């Protein structure tokens, strides 16, 4: 039965939460609420700079906190929102949905205001200049290794390690600029994002924009988070989803062995066998010709650099070895903070609970910070995705206090323990699937 709509009088149209919830996407309209205002984003979604899906993930829900979190210049964004405004919540409607923790949300908003007053959202350009310079120096060192030491096995392998390091560190840097290149930032952020992602890595910046914001909007929420898109085709993830698969008698893979075959189909193959070709498919399908030009500049540069030294076969071998090493690095670091955490369908929890239950940290150290591109501070990064990473350690004590006050578990692990927990969680969820498959 449709919810009762309040009587409409002079002034803005008034809605209930139940009415908004009906416009949750699919073939229907998409509405969302921001600071009690109701917006119809049905037609705007396809023009949204962050991609249509991230809006759809909050359709029918309150999107106040992700809106405040993702957009740096909210005044600019609100100009685009004016035509989308269709009304507001009725006065008797609460400001918070019943599934969300009101006190926690209010405390987080106070914390965010404090963080802004402390200047922790401001970028130190010198940090990113040095980060980019160290990547470029590693790139030069890789070429010098072959040019000065020859192309025998040891220099060849050392060059591959250096180039994989360039790719990994460039990946963390483009991740930074991707978050800093949201609406309202200066255009140089956008161009540096294209340079680092396209010219240094051979990847489209727009792909990152459309995919990664979905992950931040609904982390570990199936099927909204693309980072867990390997469920259920390759892996059974989480205690809840794996049991669901078992009860439904679904067996796309022998999931009880997934902690073993993960080493074969996960880290080694993700970049060389999947993303390497998908990037080109994406830019052509989406007609992202600027991205394509930047990507081609990478392939031209690296070919002109190494084919004269190694020949075509030697260069292709080096290229795919680098992709193999980079893929392992990328997968272990990106999965260490998520795959062992809570995974479920979207329960429409408040922003803080959604982020904290899906993420964990890895202990701070000079090596961990560098090796992970500060993604060892995943909790802070997910709560404040537009915060420059050099400030994560400064906000961490405040976040830890917030979690302690509201009984949220703030997890931080040693690096190797975080890697091991990937395998442990896969083994556990695989066994849960098997038990449900055989006995329920």
Model description:
- Residues 12-90 form the Cytochrome b5 heme-binding domain.
- The chain crosses the membrane at residues 261-284, 304-325.
- It holds the Pfam family Cyt-b5.
- It comes from Erinaceus europaeus (Western European hedgehog).
- GO terms for molecular function: oxidoreductase activity, acting on paired donors, with oxidation of a pair of donors resulting in the reduction of molecular oxygen to two molecules of water.
- With 440 residues, the protein is mainly α.
- Among the domains are: 1-90, Flavocytochrome B2, Chain A, domain 1, CATH 3.10.120.10; 126-213 and 266-329, no CATH class.
- The chain is built from 18 helices and eight strands.
- It has helices at 17-22, 52-56, 64-70, 74-81, 102-117, 125-149, 153-180, 187-200, 205-217, 239-247, 258-265, 270-286, 289-335, 351-357, 366-372, 378-383, 392-405, 415-439, and strands at residues 14-15, 31-34, 37-40, 85-89, 221-222, 344-345, 361-362, 412-413.
- The strands form three sheets. Strands 1-4-3-2 form a four-stranded mixed β-sheet. A two-stranded parallel ribbon has the order 5-6.
- Strand 2 (31-34) and strand 3 form a beta hairpin.
- Helix 8 (187-200) crosses helix 13.
- The two termini are 34 Å apart.
- 40% of the residues are buried.
């Amino acid at each position: 039965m449709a919810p009762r709509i309040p009587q409409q009088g002079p002034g803005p149209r008034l809605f209930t939460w139940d009415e908004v919830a009906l416009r949750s996407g699919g073939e229907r309209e998409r509405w969302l609420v921001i600071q009690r205002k109701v917006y119809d984003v049905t037609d705007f979604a396809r023009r949204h700079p962050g991609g249509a899906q991230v809006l759809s993930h909050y359709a029918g829900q309150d999107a106040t906190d992700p809106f405040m979190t993702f957009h740096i210049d909210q005044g600019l964004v609100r100009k685009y929102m004016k035509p989308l405004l269709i009304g507001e919540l009725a006065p008797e409607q609460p400001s918070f949905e019943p599934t969300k923790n009101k006190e926690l949300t209010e405390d987080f908003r106070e914390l965010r205001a404090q963080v802004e007053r402390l200047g922790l959202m401001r970028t130190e350009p010198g940090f990113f200049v040095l980060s980019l310079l160290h990547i470029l120096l590693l790139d030069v060192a890789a070429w010098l290794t072959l040019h000065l030491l020859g192309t025998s096995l040891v220099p060849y392998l050392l060059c591959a390690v250096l180039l994989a390091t360039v790719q990994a560190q460039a990946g963390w840097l483009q991740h930074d600029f991707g978050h800093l290149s949201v609406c309202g930032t200066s255009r140089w952020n956008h161009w540096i994002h294209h340079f680092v992602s396209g010219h240094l890595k051979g990847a489209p910046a727009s792909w990152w924009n459309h995919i990664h914001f979905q992950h931040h909007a609904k982390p570990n929420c199936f099927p909204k988070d693309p980072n867990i898109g390997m469920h259920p085709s390759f892996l059974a993830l989480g205690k809840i989803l794996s049991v669901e698969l078992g009860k439904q008698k679904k067996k796309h893979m022998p999931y009880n062995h997934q902690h073993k075959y993960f080493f074969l189909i996960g880290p080694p193959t993700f970049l060389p066998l999947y993303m390497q070709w998908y990037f080109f498919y994406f830019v052509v399908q989406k007609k992202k010709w600027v991205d394509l030009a930047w990507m081609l500049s990478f392939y031209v540069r690296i070919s002109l650099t190494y084919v004269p030294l190694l020949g075509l076969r030697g260069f292709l071998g080096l290229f795919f070895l680098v992709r193999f090493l980079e893929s392992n690095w990328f997968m272990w670091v990106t999965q260490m903070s998520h795959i062992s955490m809570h995974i479920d369908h979207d329960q429409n929890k408040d922003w803080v609970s959604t982020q904290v239950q899906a993420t964990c940290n890895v202990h701070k150290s000079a090596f961990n910070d560098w090796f992970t591109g500060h993604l060892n501070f995943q909790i802070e990064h997910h709560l404040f995705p537009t915060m420059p990473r050099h400030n994560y350690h400064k906000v961490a004590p405040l976040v830890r206090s917030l979690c302690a006050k509201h009984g949220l578990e703030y997890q931080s692990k040693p690096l190797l323990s975080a890697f091991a927990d990937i395998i442990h969680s896969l083994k556990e969820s695989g066994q849960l699937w098997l038990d449900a498959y055989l006995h329920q």
